[in-house]
Amino acid sequence: MDEAIAAVGGDWSRLAEARRTRADICAFVELHVEQGGVLEHTQTEIGVVQGVVGMQRYQITIEGSPNHAGTTPMDQRQDALLAAAQIVLAVNTLASQPPGDRVATVGALQVWPNAANIVPGKVVASLDVRDLSQSAIDTLVTDLNRQIIDIAAATHTKITVVPQLNVAPSPARPEIQVIIAEAAERLGLSHCPLPSRAGHDAQEMGRITDMGMIFVPSIAGVSHSATEYTTPEQCANGTQILLDTLLSLDRHYD
Q1: What would you measure as the largest C-alpha separation in the chain, in angstroms?
Q2: Closest Cα partner for 39 from 204, 191, 245, 254?
Q3: Which tens digits make up the pLDDT trace of 111-144?
Q4: Which CATH class for the 54-167 domain?
Q5: Comma-separated ranges of CATH 3.30.70.360 domains in the chain
Q6: What are 209-245's pLDDT values in tens digits?
Q7: If we measure between CA atoms, which residue out of 178, 182, 177, 185 comes closest to residue 206?
Q8: Do residues 196 and 51 lie in contact, with contact meaning Cβ atoms separated by under 8 Å?
Q9: What three-state secondary structure class fits 108?
Q10: Distance of alpha carbon 6 from alpha carbon 148, whole angstroms
Q11: Does residue 152 carry a pLDDT above 90?
């Protein structure tokens, strides 16, 4: 790594000198496409971001007993995939309930032995939970763990849950949210508050200085795809809001 940095004129031994602190940066504002469909669905031109959500990720392992699919009676099975399916349903139900505005996803499943004529003996699943409220995340995980105990007992399986990632929420500074909203009103652009459910630079910058974010719509809510699109007019609206916000912040922190 140090050789690669040196090749482009850098000095690895002086890396610590590049560190920035709150004393160096009054505020950080990021303009980004929403990467979701809220703004388009509500026909809103500007999103005033309330903060970047926290995220917890887990690996859930379900161990049952592989057996012949034809000769094993239903009441004698230890079906790991059945337990996994019940966990997926529990995650969806819990995330759809208050408190907060949580999202939770089981996005990956690995099944063993993964054969049509064998009762699944093992499943490894992912779990991703996000919310702007840490307590809402914690509540969902606690409630899910209680249900997992019942699912394991009902399906005669062993279920273990191992944390993989824990990123705390990063709230946007309230004063910056107000300044962004006021800029939108001066320009006659509709706006609404909403969380950022994806990670951004602002998430980490918000841990060392005042942070704000501006969203512009993503057509059809599509992101990370060749069909992702935001119109030139929407980009221009966001850029103007960013400029006005920075000018206002310059006066605010003077």
Answers
A1: 78
A2: 191
A3: 999 999 999 999 999 999 999 999 999 999 999 9
A4: alpha beta
A5: 54-167
A6: 999 999 999 999 999 899 999 999 999 999 999 999 9
A7: 177
A8: yes
A9: coil
A10: 51
A11: yes
Nearest of 35, 39, 44 to residue 189 by alpha carbon? 44
Question: Rg of the Cα trace of the chain?
Answer: 23
Look at the chain and count its residues.
Answer: 254
CA 126, 116, 63, 87 torsion: positive or negative?
positive
Confidence at 20, pLDDT banded by 50, 70, 90: confident
Rounded CA separation 63/81 (Å): 9
User: pLDDT tens for residues 78-113?
Assistant: 999 999 999 999 999 999 998 778 999 999 999 999
> Do the beta carbons of residue 81 and residue 123 sit within 8 Å?
yes
Side-chain half-sphere CA neighbours of 141 within 13 A = 21
Q: What is the DSSP letter of 8?
A: T
What is the distance between the alpha carbons of residues 7 and 71, in angstroms, rounded to a whole number? 65
Please give the Cα distance from 72 to 80 (Å, whole number): 14
CATH fold for domain 20-53+169-252 = Aminopeptidase (3.40.630)
Instruction: Judge whether 98 and 126 are in contact, CB under 8 Å.
Output: no
Question: 241: closest CA among 37, 29, 27?
Answer: 29
3-class secondary-structure state, position 81: helix
Pairing outcome for strands 122-131 and 54-63: antiparallel
Q: Kindly compute the dihedral angle of the four CA atoms of residues 225, 220, 52, 233, in this order, to the nearest 10 degrees.
A: 100
pTM to 2 decimal places = 0.90
Ranges of CATH 3.40.630.10 domains, the chain: 20-53+169-252
* H helix or E strand, kind and range, residue 236: helix 232-252
Tell me: pLDDT of 254 over 90: no
